[in-house]
């Protein structure tokens, strides 16, 4: 009995992209994305650790930006979140290198969550354009605060919409890259399991064929030997 052939939809080769960033393989692109996130997380961990150990170095800048002094509890929570994100990024890189698709799922879920948060933030920024303009104008660390102050509401809203759509598009594209890499690696394991199953089927068929045919020596022994007819002379 021949096993049923799996369809191409199960393999996922026709429904996912094979390359990203115009010419890079999607698996290689996922690894590069993981290393970029890894560098960002390392920088964030270093800054948060310094803020936790030496808060006096960032009090003035933090107060100018947020109007309050940093709290150690907030820094501890941010450090824990950055550390877990760091571990999830390591899992992504390890899974992409070793072709293990399950290790990519935590990073994919984190990407989807980040996309939803940014989408809500973009909707909130568009809904409260006057408050956003006032906040950017009064922020001394914002480099183009004067240019924002000179914009009218329509121009500022159009700028916020364009920037938000661009950021969300880039994030959605990176999510698609990771998901495509997951589908390709899953297809690789499906093909590997299929080939192993077909090899076992062929081996069992050959074993059954050999078991049905008797051995030559046994066949010779089991064949009855008839004595020749007696010789009679006429």
UniProtKB/TrEMBL annotation:
Sequence intervals crossing the membrane: 31-53, 77-97, 104-129, 156-182
Residue segments, region Disordered: 212-234
Topological category with respect to the lipid bilayer: Multi-pass membrane protein
Domain of life (superkingdom): Eukaryota
One Pfam family hit: Mtp
GO CC annotation, single: endomembrane system
Keywords, alphabetical: Membrane, Transmembrane, Transmembrane helix, Transport
InterPro entries in the record: LAPTM4/5 (IPR004687), LAPTM_transporter (IPR051115)
Localization, UniProt: Endomembrane system
Protein family (similarity comment): Belongs to the LAPTM4/LAPTM5 transporter family.
Protein name: Lysosomal-associated transmembrane protein 4A
């Amino acid at each position: 009995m021949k096993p049923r052939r799996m369809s191409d939809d199960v393999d996922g080769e026709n429904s996912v992209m094979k390359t990203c960033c115009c010419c890079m393989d999607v698996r290689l692109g996922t690894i590069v994305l993981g290393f970029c996130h890894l560098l960002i997380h390392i920088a964030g961990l270093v800054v948060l650790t310094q803020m936790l150990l030496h808060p006096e170095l960032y009090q003035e800048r933090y107060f100018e930006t947020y109007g309050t002094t940093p709290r150690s509890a907030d820094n501890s929570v941010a450090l824990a979140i950055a550390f877990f994100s760091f571990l999830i990024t390591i899992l992504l890189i390890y899974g992409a290198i070793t072709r293990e698709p399950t290790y990519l799922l935590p990073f994919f879920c984190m990407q989807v969550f980040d996309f939803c948060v940014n989408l809500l933030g973009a909707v909130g920024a568009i809904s409260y354009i006057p408050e956003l303009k006032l906040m950017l104008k009064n922020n001394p660390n914002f480099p183009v605060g004067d240019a924002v102050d000179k914009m009218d509401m329509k121009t500022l809203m159009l700028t916020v919409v364009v920037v938000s759509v661009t950021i969300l598009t880039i994030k959605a594209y990176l999510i698609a890259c990771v998901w495509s890499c997951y589908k390709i690696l899953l297809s690789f394991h499906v093909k590997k399991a299929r080939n192993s199953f077909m090899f076992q089927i062929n081996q069992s068929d050959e074993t059954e064929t050999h078991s049905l045919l008797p051995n030559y020596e046994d066949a010779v022994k089991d064949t009855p030997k008839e004595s020749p007819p007696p010789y009679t002379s006429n």
